[in-house]
């Protein structure tokens, strides 16, 4: 019976040891330490975890630190219930390791003369005496979390292609460049013909954790100008192609065009001339936000995001043309010149709030982050337009009047066309990061943002008027009233960044 009792105690002891080992392994598996470093303490441990400072965690150095430079085998551990001894053997004193310190008169009890280390238990109560040279284990300390962050990213984004009516058209020599004539194509403008190319930019995100559960931050991003342009490259005579500025003539009524350069077009004198056209889009954003922890667990965390948002979206469209008469068979004089300039600018200023969620999952040195939120607020829409015609006869300007092909008059000094509209802008970001050194990660991600209500220049062109007045000074242009048109806009692309925690 005694033998059976001893066996039960052995089994119970073994089960307890296995249970303790499993619990320890589970604790280690559930820790939020992202990785271990050779030669430095793990710097991403949870607050309150005990770590060693200034310790080389490589297997060889750990063995040398705790058991000496010379190879030593581990002492067997006594089994509970066996008759192999009454106590667990004590490991040999740690001698001649990287933390060894010669004893002397400066040695004091308890810390071996250095407050950074504790005395090994085998050294006794003091450094002197028969202990001689004594190694110390590093004093354990509590590792604090990083409480600030900064992310710098390069943006490689594509902005939605924008649409206009055809602004510069061309056809073969001898054919009018009018939209309703076969062979006419658009040189500049058209349906989704402007923009859509890659734009570079940058994004900064920085902030501070005020507690484990709450932090504040700021975010700013900017995209370089997304532009599209076309040019005749100087004066062209129309012998290769005819060029014009199309419009709808209410006098015909039908499609018509202001001839820039043409040769042999029926019912018209010949012209030579030039043109330039350009469209540009600028976008920037500034945000201030707070974040509060909602969920957390082993290797993951979800925060509630809320704060203030501001966006700026500026769209500019300009078209300039010069037409010089080279024949006078129908009317006018050779050398008569018509210069027409149009400029349309729209500004969109969003002021509002944001709300959303940010989640992060950590697995070793890798982390995956998602950010989804929506911006809600007021979009201030501003329209500014200017059109000017200048006529020159005999080399001397004879008249200049408001009104071009795209913009009637000058609206830069009025706010009558400005409006405020409530709008929303959903945003989504995903990011994969790799921590290649303590507190520093490199990331690659994807971003998407969409604005529901934006005023764009190309949507607010009204090139419908009485065509017989466009080149006959000083007749006024008559144009039907047009309505403001709002549209949506989105931008998306790749983010390449560096994340620094400190």
Q: Judging from the principal axes of the Cα atoms, what is the shape?
A: elongated
| Share of residues in helices | under 10%
Number of strands: 20
**Could you name the CATH homologous superfamily of the largest domain?**
OPCA outer membrane adhesin/invasin
Keywords: Signal
Pfam families: BBP7
Protein name: BBP7 family outer membrane beta-barrel protein
Signal peptide: 1-25
Could you describe the 3D structure shown?
The protein is elongated, with a radius of gyration of 39 Å. It starts with a helix and ends with a strand. The strands form four sheets. Strands 5-8-9-12-13-14-15-17-18-20 form a ten-stranded antiparallel beta barrel. Strands 6, 7, 10, 11 and 19 form a five-stranded mixed sheet that branches. Strands 1-4 form a two-stranded antiparallel sheet. It has 502 residues and is mainly β. Helix content is 7%, strand content 49%. The chain has two helices and 20 strands. The protein folds into two domains: 2-142, no CATH class; 148-501, Lipocalin (Beta Barrel). InterPro entries: BBP7. This is BBP7 family outer membrane beta-barrel protein. Keywords: Signal.
Overview features:
502 residues, Lipocalin, ten-stranded antiparallel β-barrel, five-stranded mixed β-sheet, 2 helices, 20 strands, 7% helix, disordered N terminus, BBP7 family outer membrane beta-barrel protein, BBP7, signal
Short description:
It contains two helices and 20 strands.
């Amino acid at each position: 019976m005694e033998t059976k009792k001893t066996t039960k105690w052995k089994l119970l002891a073994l089960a307890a040891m296995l249970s303790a080992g499993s619990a320890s392994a589970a604790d280690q598996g559930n820790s939020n330490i992202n990785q271990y470093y050779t030669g430095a303490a793990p710097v991403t441990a949870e607050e309150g975890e005990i770590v060693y400072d200034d310790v080389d965690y490589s297997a060889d150095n750990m063995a040398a630190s705790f058991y000496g430079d010379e190879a030593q085998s581990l002492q067997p551990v006594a089994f509970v219930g066996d008759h192999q001894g009454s106590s667990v053997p004590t490991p040999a004193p740690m001698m001649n390791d990287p933390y060894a310190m010669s004893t002397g008169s400066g040695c004091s009890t308890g810390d071996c003369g250095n407050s950074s280390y504790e005395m090994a238990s085998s050294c006794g109560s003091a450094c002197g005496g028969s202990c001689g040279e004594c190694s110390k284990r590093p004093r354990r300390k509590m590792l604090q979390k990083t409480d600030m962050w900064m992310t710098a990213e390069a943006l490689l984004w594509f902005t939605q292609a924008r649409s206009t009516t055809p602004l510069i058209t061309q056809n073969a020599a001898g054919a009018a460049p009018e939209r309703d004539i076969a062979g006419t194509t658009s040189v500049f403008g058209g349906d989704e013909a402007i923009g859509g190319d890659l734009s570079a930019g940058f994004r900064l995100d920085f902030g501070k954790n005020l507690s484990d559960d709450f932090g504040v931050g700021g975010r700013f991003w900017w995209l370089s100008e997304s532009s599209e342009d076309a040019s005749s490259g100087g004066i062209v005579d129309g012998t290769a192609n005819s060029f014009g500025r199309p419009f709808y003539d209410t006098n015909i009524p039908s499609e018509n065009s202001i001839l820039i350069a043409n040769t042999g077009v029926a019912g018209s004198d010949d012209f030579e001339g030039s043109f330039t056209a350009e469209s540009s889009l600028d976008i920037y954003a500034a945000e201030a936000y707070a974040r509060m922890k909602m969920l957390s667990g082993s290797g993951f965390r979800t925060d509630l995001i809320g704060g203030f948002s501001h966006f700026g979206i500026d769209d500019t469209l300009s078209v300039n043309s010069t037409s010089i008469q080279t024949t006078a068979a129908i009317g006018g004089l050779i050398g008569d010149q018509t210069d027409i300039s149009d400029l349309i600018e729209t500004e969109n200023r969003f002021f509002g709030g944001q709300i959303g969620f940010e989640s992060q999952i950590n697995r070793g040195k890798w982390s995956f982050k998602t950010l989804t939120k929506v911006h809600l607020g007021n979009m201030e829409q501003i329209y500014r337009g200017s059109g000017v015609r200048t006529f020159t006869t005999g080399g001397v300007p004879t008249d200049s009047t408001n009104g071009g092909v795209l913009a009637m008059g000058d609206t830069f000094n009025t706010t009558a066309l400005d409006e405020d509209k409530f709008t929303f802008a959903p945003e989504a970001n995903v990011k994969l990061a790799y921590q290649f050194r303590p507190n520093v990660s490199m990331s690659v991600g994807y971003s998407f943002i969409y604005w529901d209500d934006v005023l764009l220049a190309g949507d607010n062109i009204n090139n419908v008027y009485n065509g017989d007045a466009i080149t006959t000074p000083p007749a006024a242009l008559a144009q039907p009233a047009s309505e403001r048109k709002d549209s949506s806009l989105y931008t998306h692309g790749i983010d390449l960044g560096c994340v620094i925690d400190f």
